[in-house]
Amino acid sequence: MSTSIRRLTRDRLLRILAQHSGQLTNFAQLGGQIGLDEKTARKYLGVLEQLFLVRRLEPWHSNRLSRLVKTPKLHFLDSGLLAALLGVTPQRVAGDRTVLGVLLETFVYTEVLKLATVSERQIALYHYRDKDKNEVDIVIEDESGGVIGLEIKASATVRPADFAGLRKLAAAAGKNFRLGAVLHDGDAVIGFGDHLYAAPLSCLWRSGPKGP
Known about the structure:
Elements: H1 3-19, H2 27-32, H3 38-50, E1 54-57, E2 73-76, H4 79-86, H5 90-95, H6 97-117, E3 123-129, E4 135-142, E5 147-152, H7 164-173, E6 177-184, E7 190-191, E8 196-200, H8 203-206
Parallel strand pairs: 5-6, 6-8
Antiparallel strand pairs: 1-2, 3-4, 4-5, 7-8
Helix pairs in contact: 4-6
């Protein structure tokens, strides 16, 4: 395969990946959209990771549970690049808030990743999803096993139902669960009981990089 063809294939795959940002990674499905087998799709994704364009977010797991999904999620490392690949405009965001949700999750993930790299503790990032489709966007686990869950919502309104995944994570983590938060674009911190809070996105910058 010539260099130009490889570059074209890589660019096409990058655009396909943009459509699946924040979703579970199915290499056979992704590669099949541009005529690649699963092995080759994995190889190209590895190259994109080495270029710091995307990163896989591995699933959090617990020996206490067997119903956890073990498939990684895919995240872009630049929400601006993701927006360009998706053709996002202010007009499109105004008419479709789900588009903003995808970009916001990517943005928050990269900000949390930055905080993790400067933390005094050893921090690992995961996602949570069980076979009943309960999920948490970002799971932060420190070297002692302490767990924090973050759910990202592109809205200023937070309801008890938004904590379904965090409650499942809390039950799975048991005594290691420290905190669960739904990050929203409002300005108030509201308690929802059992170490669960709705908190504004600005909390990521107002407080320093603390471990669980």
